[in-house]
TrEMBL record:
InterPro entries: AAA_16, P-loop_NTPase, Sig_transdc_resp-reg_C-effctor, TPR-like_helical_dom_sf, Tscrpt_reg_LuxR_C, WH-like_DNA-bd_sf. It comes from the Bacteria. Residues 871-936 form the HTH luxR-type domain. The keyword DNA-binding applies. This is AAA family ATPase. It comes from Streptomyces argyrophylli. PANTHER family: DNA-BINDING TRANSCRIPTIONAL ACTIVATOR DEVR_DOSR. One of its GO terms (biological process) is regulation of DNA-templated transcription.
Amino acid sequence: MRKENCDLCSTPFGDLLREAERRSGVLVLQGGPGTGKTFFLEETKRRALASGSLCLYATGFREERDIPFSVVEQFLHVPGIPESIRAAVRQLVKGAAPATPTGPASAHLLRDLVSALVAAASNSGILVLVDDAQYTDPASQACLLYLARRAQSRDITFVVAYPHILREGMRAHLEFVGIPGARLIEAAGLREQEVRELLVDGLGAEAAARLAAPVHRISGGNPALATALVRDLLLAGTAIPEASVPVGDAFRTAYLACLVRHPNLAQTVQALAVLGDAATPARVAHLLECTTKETGRHIAELERAGLLGDDGFRHPAVPGAVLGMLDAELPGLHRRAAELLFAQGAPALAVARHLVAADEPPAPSRVRVLRHAAQQLVRAGRPDEALACLRLADRAGLDERERSRITAALVGTLCRVNPLAAEPEVRRLLAAARAGQADCSALRLLVTWFLWFGCHDQAREVMALLVATCEPSHAHDGVQGFHALIGCLWPKLLDDAAVRLYLCTARDVTASVRYGATPMPPFPAAPDDSGGPRRLPTPATCVNGADNDAAERRPAPAVMDAHRFWESDLATVLELMQKGETALAGRFCEEQWHRLTGPELPARQAFQAALRAHIRWSLGDLRTAVACAASALDLLPDHSWGVAVGLPLSVLIAAHTLMGDPGQAARYLERPVPDEMWDSSFGPLYRMARGRHLLETGRPRAALNEFLACPASDEAPQANVLGPLGRRACVAEAYLALGETERARGTAVTELMRAHRPADARGRALLVLAAVDGPERRRHHLEEAERGLRAAGSRLSLSRALAHLSQVDLADGHTRTARARWREALSLATECGAPHLLRHLATPHDEPSPAAEPFLAERGHPAGAGVPPTVTVAVGSLTEAEWRVASLAASGRSNRQIATRLYITVSTVEQHLTRVYRKLCVRRRSDLADLLGLQHQAGEPARCAPLPGRPEHGSTSGVPTAPPGSQPSREDDRRARGARRTRAAHTTASRAGP
């Protein structure tokens, strides 16, 4: 050991060292590996030499046990010994071999050696040290015993070290203990306080107090291991939490060094490491082909030395280090361990682990174990280990049908990780299917894989084999998920009458077997008999259902196995979405999502993340939708998504567009998609998202073409596998943006006349009608839209309806109601992550408005060449309210006239003008008029976009804005006074109550 550890190891041996220095006789030191025996002998030798005493030292080696006098001969190489002793040892070694060391021929040689030692001891004490005395050869053993019996009376001290002198096989060495006056000393481990003292020297008092307990626990008090851990801690630094003490190379090396000179203990540790959690003393003994008693003795010795704890290894890094010592013998140990565990009926996972580690073609009887283990590993989210089991099983000598089952299991496991990686196995499985060697589940798997990547011809071929060879009564529970996946990946396949009949029959058989004669829906429906508008769920309550009345009236869905997503959960989610139960589908999907432990099954988790993103987008939770869709694309590369890449991309495009980031949406539109995607259910979703982006960026004609390219739900029901598209409502909005009001009205009316339409689509159609119909019908349409959207929980569309109703209320003089509705609209839009959607709408006075933006290119009014850039930016920084006040002030109206015009106080007008002057850096109204005149030169004055159907000169608040330079007419003042009286009467009535 190094010098810096002397104080530590001297502490437990301090009394023994002092006793060895001042008395003669025999000391027998025993202790396990690494407990400090060797250090004690080295320290004793150092002190003896420092005091001038003569020291003879030697070490026993297992490889030299059969060489006579191999230990005594080492005395010849000790520097500084008297020549008389050296000559006596040389004569003993040379003259006694091969005779018996205690026979007549060598007795005089032993006496000569004793005489030489006694003569030397008369001048200075003599210390004889023997380490690892258990490996002493018989000749040296006899010689040392002869000397030890005469040591006490001759000022000679003998110290011999053993691992455990009382164990079986050490009978000959017990004679040292039987010598009169001999002492047996146990080398005990370090206490926690002693470990703390060791840590103080290297890490300081604070770190030592914090780390003493974990270091003592990991090292077991073994001095060698504790010292090695200190070196690892010094390399790691002092900022180490108590729960994560680093175990580095120093600790691993020290642990292995403790076992080098103890082969029996090393074999026991290796067997424990190989068996792992399945290790018991009986199994270790069976693996090592020894007795259980002997194994128990070895384990007890290892525990005393601190190399093992009560529950096995003290740190998970130790077994790996131990197994690293094994080379060629390791596969054999694993093979024997697998046979042992298989014979004893151990779990499949325990047996399979050793079969894989042995890396030998398994017997056919072990293939079933490997298959069962692979299934459990997939469910546990450990696909790499499952693939290792299946690939090993594939090397066994199997018939073609059994091999096709293994191949199908390989394909299924790879598809959960990366579907494209399964292509070689898919080719093998397709050949087996054509040869009639694939079962029904393998055929379903093939159909799904081919549809995932748009290989329609192969999918149709395998589907025909499935229909022809598999009876519907043989279908298992996965037929529901299979049907749902076909509807998502290639709905056209369901147009085949034979395929449709097969799937329907299989579903009916499965349902009747599970539930009885009558198939049952996954969730019982409950009518909404509340009779009034429901509270609107927030993003959080859409997850837990606390505020969702529909979910409160339905029993919460029983969460199925988290790894049966493809078999049944997907069908359940899609069925709920097709029924318009998006919130309930969201709850079910959220519960499944939170049961996932990690990204060990990337493909499955990616698709579920994309589906979750689609649901969150449908519920108006745009931020969560973007996060889920982006994580889905991160989990799986685009080329592995196949046709399903349209699902996350459509969410990202639509959500970023609605969140006011069309640039990011355009970047997602640039990502390539396969041509086969347009034939899947993800194609219409992608077209709708692209159409919304085109509509938002000022290209309504192109958006209309995208919307019209999507099939209507009544013409192609399979287009709505992932929920209603709301196609007609989008078409009506596109017509409205094109100014084709009659077509917009006709499309919206058609949507409203359809039965069983989603509330969101109906609400958006009513918003279109409110825009194209006259003022007398506008409020009716908007209030009907509000009721439907609120009941359905469509928060984003509801925010728009409330904002438009706020405008109508403001125009009618109902300022208080307008403010309340505006606040709710802005709150909902903010929760959804799209407050900018209200930027074109008027803000009720003294209410917060969405973030301001320049009234220039985004509104279709590009800045003119003659406008200074600073002026453009400054004018664009005005809010809607500030712009209205500034425009009226620039036109020559007084503050009181502006207040009368806008139904606000004079003080509010002054506050707005103060902010306008500060933003535009002007001092007088004439400067303001000149500045806004420059804006007129750039284009038409920007203003809030009115609802279609309003007079062109009207503002969105319902208050007409006079052209710049005009004077207010008496008719304007008369209307303003009438509006104030109406508002006052309405306020008085509302306060009085019924």
